[in-house]
User: What shape does this take?
Amino acid sequence: MIISSSKPFEEVLALLKDEDPIFVVGCSVCAAKLHVGGEPEVKEMCERLARAGKHVIGGTVPRAACNMRSSEVLTDLDPEILNAGAILVMSCGSGASTVAKLFDIPVYPSNNTDSLGGMSGDEVLRDQCVMCGQCSIGDFGGVCPSSKCPKGLLNGPCGGSMDGICEVDPEKDCAWELIYKRLERIRRLDLLENIYKPKEHGVK
Amino acid sequence: MTQRYCCNDCPLPIHHLLLFIAMSLKAKPAYYPKMYSTFNDTLRSDRFIITAEVSPPKGVDTSTMLSDAVRLRGWVDAINITDNQRAVMRMSPLAAGKTLLDEGHEVIMQLTCRDRNRLALQSDLLGAAAMGLRNVCVMSGDHTTKGDHPGAKPVYDLDSIQLLSMIQNMEEGYDLAGNDLEDAPEFVVGAVSNIDPKQPMQLLKLKKKVRMGTQFIQTQAVYDVEQFAEFMGMIESVEMPVIAGIIPLRSANMARFMNENIPGIRVGDDLIRRMENADDPVQEGLRIAAGTIMELRGICRGVHLMPIGGHMNTPQLLEMAGLTALR
Assistant: This one.
């Protein structure tokens, strides 16, 4: 799933400064699960914008903002969108881009798209994948160093990793600590001896 | 006298034409001097090696850097010129290193993976070789978020292992894409390492560096010789000159700050107490460092001096450690 987070309301308001009337579009998939674009959040956004003096003419939540056959998906849900001066999309960047492709009016995002992650139980799993187009997580016990290590190091930790903690974020485990533990658990520490070549960025 | 021309149709005076012909016949200029690495000789000798770190200026005036280097003349085998250390922007080590080289210093150019993609790394390495900078020391580099431009894009196109491998390719006459180089550079290549024997992944990475042709290792600062000896024991199988880092303490607070903020540095409580109780903390720090150097003489191949704030006290430190000048 795509991990998104809400922009501060003041920033959203500034984006919409010269726009009216506003229509708000949410997303029932990732953004809803993360509570940044489901029904309650779209309703709340409409109310807050109205309180801040914006003219909000409606809000709707399609099944997936990133997967829409045509503009009819939204006009069927609420034809009021055709009267909008601008659309605020409460999804990831992909959803906002998809909506922008369907309507010839300005489209603004209410969220920042942070990473490609996942969810397990109630736990949000961030930075699971960087979509490099050359997946090799099998070599790293299923832990992607390109996304879990801020330096994307493929051949072991940097000197900044200490006691299993990342140099960049003391709240995070070093990716190589995670890889080591995982390979130990699946009895494949031998993979750590391999020397991995640089990723080919041109392939994407 | 009438001017003589090349021919009836063009106005080129004949003596200009003769000059052009003479210039084109002149031998091809020597492209680079294939500078000799005296540091390579030191590595191959059985001498105790001393290297020291000098920082490029944050500005264009190189005089402070050069006067710091002058203090080291006769005392050290080579000077490491740092590469935007701690991710703080400074003059490039290529330019600063060449400036030191022109003053007759033996230079080790540090090269991080943080700020250059594979094209820029190779470009700088070719430039270094062409200008006679033969010794390089490679590392990942502190993350951009730790420095003075935290919004900079961190590159890390290659990691230090891949960079070492690429240098091997270049020495064989190929770039990373497999294209022929017109002529192959020659380097003396080093890398860095932490020294905690309890970090298996750090040791594993060090062994990869050795497999990729590293010719020397410079380490993080040593304050616990016993622990360092344990580390050396764990890499016993590696035939490699290990040069141990030394940062003289200047105060108890500095020790505490490093313990909290610099990965891989652990100053023990006993040393912090010594610093607290000292009348002259700077001198006490030098005494501690000199003692460490003397103990290290039997354990590793040399020391790498990285004092905070310049090399004013470095000759004194080396004398206290029983090391002589006129190297």
